[in-house]
Specification:
Number of strands: 4
Distance between the termini: 27 Å
Radius of gyration: 16 Å
Strand order of the largest sheet: 1-2
Shape: globular
Strand content: 25-35%
């Protein structure tokens, strides 16, 4: 398992935080853009450098519920050729639920 981080030329302290995490854990694999390239290039760079069975994207403005990844991995491992989706709840700038939900469908190309 590894954590690939593509920093799209952040202007905050992201690089220092990422490098500190990498120093503590060799599974952290950062890639730093020298200019802002956008989400498509960042996602493609993550895909290009990934060697694992699964790749899960998380944006800098996303927050996961506890155990989300463990639950998702368990379902994927037992149903590798099935369709999966992930729903998200939208929060405002104060992290209060707005009542809006977003759904992203992912599917297997093998069937």
């Amino acid at each position: 398992m590894e954590l690939i981080i593509v920093d799209d030329n952040s202007t905050d302290r992201s690089r220092q935080i990422i490098e500190a995490c990498q120093a503590k854990d060799s599974r952290v694999r950062p890639f730093f853009h020298t200019k802002n390239c956008g989400i498509t290039r960042s996602a493609n760079d993550a895909l290009k450098n990934d060697t694992s069975k699964y790749l899960i994207f998380i944006g800098s403005d996303d927050a996961w519920l506890p155990n989300k990844l463990e639950k998702q991995l368990s379902v994927m491992e037992s149903n590798e050729d099935k369709i999966f989706w992930s729903e998200g709840q939208i929060v405002d700038s104060s992290r209060i639920l707005t009542g809006q939900v977003t759904t992203e469908f992912l599917y297997s190309l093998s069937r």
